[in-house]
Design brief:
Helices cover about 50% and strands about 15% of the residues. It contains ten helices and seven strands. It has helices at about 1-30, 35-40, 45-60, 85-90, 95-110, 110-135, 145-160, 180-185, 190-205, 240-250; strands at about 60-65, 80-85, 165-170, 170-175, 205-210, 220-225, 265. Strand 5 (about 205-210) and strand 6 (about 220-225) form a beta hairpin. Helix 1 (about 1-30) packs across helix 3 and helix 2 (about 35-40) crosses helix 3 (about 45-60). The N and C termini lie far apart (about 70 Å). About 30% of the residues are buried.
Length: about 270
């Protein structure tokens, strides 16, 4: 009996580890969730999943926060579980140390434009693969930007970005719950700029980056505007920090509206 108990203990630990990895993966793919939501996806009881959640919180991989409607109704306030930076770091990153060393050398030798050229070259293959997937999804029709964003989200998920797309009253949003190069992009925002440009080209319209994991946000969020309605003005979405600086620099300068049909983006400015 004693030998059997000793032999079964490693197996139980391994099972716990696999379940906790699945919990982390679900939070990465679908965003913050409650214990009940996770239990439903895992097919186990809320009490069982909470044991794993408590362990992940204790190790710093997750944190628990109240939901927006936590103070409504009776009973225990609803709380969601979020991945922390430590939790995200458990997922593969694209050889961060090597990439940082290489880009620092490039920046020292050629400046920010050289880094941007490297970023654009690195994303060329991703753009080609995602372009094929998007065009196949909208075969026979032009496809509205939001529809193209849905197809792009599926393609990006296949590339490891855990992406989702949603339609909003003013257009839509593309959310990436994982960034394979987040630690590198934190130092070299040209990677985010190049990626945003790719998204704009693939959905076929002007897009605006609202948040990035590299800036410390929980997810990378890109706003995709809806069709323009003549005479109906809407307030612009709030950009990420780099874009706010660009808007402040351009404040007070009036320019003629562009007649170009080429999709454009609001780029984050690289700090001097």
């Amino acid at each position: 009996m004693e030998t059997s108990a000793v032999q079964s203990r490693p197996s139980a630990v391994a099972d716990d580890g696999r379940t906790r990895d699945r919990v982390s993966a679900l939070l990465l793919e679908h965003g913050p969730q409650t214990a009940t939501e996770l239990a439903g996806r895992l097919g186990i009881s809320p009490a069982a999943v909470r044991r794993h959640l408590d362990a992940l919180v204790a190790t710093g991989r997750l944190e628990e926060r109240p939901t927006r409607d936590a103070h409504r109704g009776r009973g225990r306030p609803a709380r969601q579980f979020h991945l922390t930076d430590a939790g995200r770091s458990a997922f593969p990153h694209a050889y961060d140390d090597l990439a940082l060393t290489a880009l620092r050398y490039v920046a020292a030798a050629g400046g920010p434009d050289a880094v941007r050229a490297v970023a654009e070259q690195q994303l060329a293959g991703l753009e080609a693969r995602c372009s094929t997937a998007v065009e196949q999804a909208v075969t026979g029709r032009a496809g509205a930007p939001v529809d193209r964003a849905q197809a792009l989200a599926a393609a990006l998920t296949a590339e490891g970005y855990a992406a989702t797309a949603s339609a909003l009253s003013g257009g839509g949003q593309l959310c990436q719950h994982h960034c394979p190069v987040a630690h590198v992009a934190a130092e070299f925002p040209q990677l985010c700029e190049a990626e945003t440009a790719v998204i704009g080209r693939l959905v076929g319209t002007h897009v605006q980056r609202l948040a990035t994991i590299a800036h410390g946000d929980g997810i990378c969020t890109t706003h995709i505007p809806g069709p323009h309605v003549p005479g109906n003005r809407t307030a612009p979405a709030r950009p990420v920090l780099g874009e706010r600086a660009a808007h402040r620099t351009a404040a007070g300068t009036r320019t003629a509206p562009s007649t170009s049909s080429t999709p454009t983006i609001d780029r984050e400015r690289t700090p001097a």
